[in-house]
Amino acid sequence: MATGRTHRPANRSRGIPEATVARLPLYLRALTALSERSVPTVSSEELAAAAGVNSAKLRKDFSYLGSYGTRGVGYDVEYLVYQISRELGLTQDWPVVIVGIGNLGAALANYGGFASRGFRVAALIDADPAMTGKPVAGIPVQHSDELERVVRENGVSIGVISTPAGAAQQVCDRLVAAGVTSILNFAPTVLNVPEGVDVRKVDLSIELQILAFHEQRKAGGEAVGGGVLPQTTVGRDESTDQGPDGDMPAVMPA
Amino acid sequence: MATGRTHRPANRSRGIPEATVARLPLYLRALTALSERSVPTVSSEELAAAAGVNSAKLRKDFSYLGSYGTRGVGYDVEYLVYQISRELGLTQDWPVVIVGIGNLGAALANYGGFASRGFRVAALIDADPAMTGKPVAGIPVQHSDELERVVRENGVSIGVISTPAGAAQQVCDRLVAAGVTSILNFAPTVLNVPEGVDVRKVDLSIELQILAFHEQRKAGGEAVGGGVLPQTTVGRDESTDQGPDGDMPAVMPA
DNA sequence: CCATCTTTGTGCACACGTTCACAAAGACAT
DNA sequence: ATGTCTTTGTGAACGTGTGCACAAAGATGG
């Protein structure tokens, strides 16, 4: 604390690695838990264990933020909570709109992790007129027609899409046109956005498929599937039992 | 270059990169859509555009599976669908249990992307006795007491946890003890599992925080309360993502 | 059969991410 | 103060992922 004082732009210049950014929320969660237990300081080793990462990685991650630790002691929990929150932009209020209030949209609206992190559900939007006015998580659902107005009036810059895949691109376009520049997409489809707009996707089906891959490998790589299968015109085999809808609905249209 | 048998199965030996595995479901989705439109072949360029990735990356990814394309022509859609499905282990049936039938659990149970990919919801489990017997997505919810029996009787190896954070570790332990070796965790907590068990996590709050970070950066680091940001000329030289995709996996291996 | 054209498959270079291992910084006891 | 002990911060090695650019493979037309 003596020397460095606050200004320690170490690596802080303007480049925190993406991989590090993705872990900051993880650290923040662990630190918040410690804070609630009134733990004053924590070592990189302890915190790393709590966050489920390797301690060297954690120290390197923190080094991108600056030198906030004390050698021989560890990190001040409260201070670190503040620094990470600030770095992530959680010290400001982020109004969010959720579009597509099916099962998933409702789950998101009810999710406590939002409010506790500076995210505020500014509006719930659904295309189904039958949903309009119906309260979900205490917030009345609004019709899609209101989308642009809601975004503008609330200064929303983050939108969450939990519609069926077929509607996602259109919703995305409207959100972007209205001023949204970050989108969290739960619909199983690739979204095209103009430059400057960030999209992150969460695809439940993809996660399961990745697990299946590893599961299959564990179960004895060569067991199922019939081995090599000479080229031949594969034509059809029953394997393509793809339903008529593929993987379309992310949530029930309600 | 591995040794020996340099014939058909090129790099297929035993090492498909994780990053490639994570993209296979993406390709599969795009290919399935093409298949439904009866498109016979597709070039790496077209398919890459549909999947939202770079074509060189796609070709390299496919090269790990083997040489399944025809130069000057492209890839046979049906054949590739089969090969990727087989590689991912989707040609077999994967019974899945979902534990924690709140809003999110219900959304998952209703999610169409599961059934259409070889995943079958074998059971829904919830600790609340008031839920027992109540049908969700056409499947009656069973009480937690049934967890072990259900896993054993159905040969379930993949479990989905959508409980509150406080219950997740205990549920995880029971799933693992009963024989589950792959877990998809939606609870915002780090799960400890014995070696040999795969965990993938999806944390909605974390995704939003990552978006907030980039959003803050876009806003010039200036504290931007509300109001609409003028669509600044985002022509950043950052050479940002080409695709609409932040590219970081939505979840990370635990 | 030869020429030409298209598109794959991949060598290579580079960027990014992870981990090791250790010097330096500081706390603390004597 | 001095020495010892703990823990950070980071240089360097290593591993993984990405993208360019091009030779090779095969189609197609004459």
From TrEMBL, chains A, B:
It is found in: Cytoplasm. Pfam families: CoA_binding, Put_DNA-bind_N. Residues 26-65 bind DNA. NAD(+) binds at residues 100-105. It comes from the Bacteria. Residues 89-190 form the CoA-binding domain. Keywords: Cytoplasm, DNA-binding, NAD, Repressor, Transcription, Transcription regulation. Its main location: cytoplasm. Residues 222-254 are annotated as: Disordered. InterPro entries: CoA-bd (IPR003781), NAD(P)-bd_dom_sf (IPR036291), Rex_actinobacterial-type (IPR058236), Rex_DNA-bd_C_dom (IPR009718), Tscrpt_rep_Rex (IPR022876), WH-like_DNA-bd_sf (IPR036388), WH_DNA-bd_sf (IPR036390). Modulates transcription in response to changes in cellular NADH/NAD(+) redox state. Homodimer. NCBIfam families: PRK05472.1-3, PRK05472.2-1, PRK05472.2-2, PRK05472.2-3, PRK05472.2-4, PRK05472.2-5. Belongs to the transcriptional regulatory Rex family. This is Redox-sensing transcriptional repressor Rex. It comes from Streptomyces thermoalcalitolerans. The gene is rex.
